[in-house]
Fold this protein.
Amino acid sequence: MLVTGAAGSVGQQLLPGLDGVALRLLDRVAADAPPGAEVVTGELTDRDLLRRALSGIDAVVHLAGDPRPGAEWDELEGPNVDGFAALLGAAREQGVRRVVFASSVHAMGRHESAGRFPVEASWAPAPCCPYGATKAFDEALAGVHAVRGGPSAIGLRLGATVERPTQSSQLTGWLGPADLRQLVVRALAADVAFGVYPGVSANTRQRWDLTTARADLGYEPVLDAEAYAGDVEDDGRAVTTCTLPG
Ligand SMILES: NC(=O)c1ccc[n+]([C@@H]2O[C@H](COP(=O)([O-])OP(=O)(O)OC[C@H]3O[C@@H](n4cnc5c(N)ncnc54)[C@H](O)[C@@H]3O)[C@@H](O)[C@H]2O)c1
């Protein structure tokens, strides 16, 4: 299996959940790799590198990208749009079966900021920022590939994917490490040609409807941000995604 963006924050939280899987890791910087993992260092948009990285690969977990909701389109377009498009094209050429990729709750952020929740996975994308728009584009392009011969693709709209919530705004959209690992493993195995699902834990203050993730992927989150509610800093924000004017 290939994991892109393995050196990053989500990648490092995920890797212990892939124990026993033969891993190849791709990142532009050297990743902390488990014993036995192959490491490929370079850019997602390097087609030769992608061809080598995907050779003999059955499934990809794609995490490489710019995770900053406050970033501008010019900063995001290379890693989040061009990089993902290159990966999907190369995965198709190499006959990869499944791509599980990191989307974000920001692809649906206007629903949350307008008070329309719990947000259902099937609603139309409504990004709250250029970052969310790159993720909505990624979901659309992955769907095109899935219906035109593959790879099959599952997008996970990750919430605040951190060891534990530290700010009050994360209490509604936290994804804890054990749930991240379970969700990715189940998405890799699910009998689904294409789908997008929220990636959050079973938070008491839930805003993301997990019905389809439970039904299609068998996702059964076990963590709840409420356990940390007494310890978080009040950041004065009512949403995990972007607070919009008006
Ligand atoms: N961290 C979160 O809370 C969160 C929430 C929602 C979605 N996501 C998504 O999850 C993914 C991982 O996020 P993260 O927090 O681990 O980010 P991160 O910045 O910690 O890690 C991303 C990794 O991708 C690599 N990378 C970026 N562009 C690359 C390129 N063009 N070629 C090769 N490698 C490249 C970086 O070197 C880095 O190691 C991102 O797609 C992000 O948008 C993260």
Summary: The chain has one domain: 2-228. The CA atoms of residues 142 and 153 lie 6 Å apart. The chain has a mean pLDDT of 97.
